[in-house]
């Protein structure tokens, strides 16, 4: 019975650490996405043709229910 309690206690002690790691991964993923969006926005500002194509793609995705 002591082994089961020790395992349960260990799992309970690890749970908060795992939640923090999961949140850290989520934050890193969000930061990467933000960086990519900023890079694309900068490119679109410097290239009006790319901006037009990007807007058309977004409109098409929304029009067909993909976005």
Describe the structure.
The structure is a single chain. With 67 residues, this protein is mainly α. The protein has one domain. The protein has helices spanning 2-46, 48-63. α1 (2-46) packs across α2 (48-63). The radius of gyration is 22 Å and the shape is elongated.
The helicity comes to: over 70%
Indicate the low-confidence ranges by residue numbers.
none
- The computed structural class is mainly alpha
Largest sheet geometry: none
Q: How would the global form be characterised?
A: elongated
List the SSEs and their pairings:
Layout lengths: L1 H45 L1 H16 L4
Helix pairs in contact: 1-2
Q: Which structural traits does this protein have?
A:
single chain, 67 residues, mainly alpha, 2 helices, elongated
Nutshell version of this structure?
By secondary structure, the chain is an all-alpha fold. It has helices at residues 2-46, 48-63. α1 crosses α2.
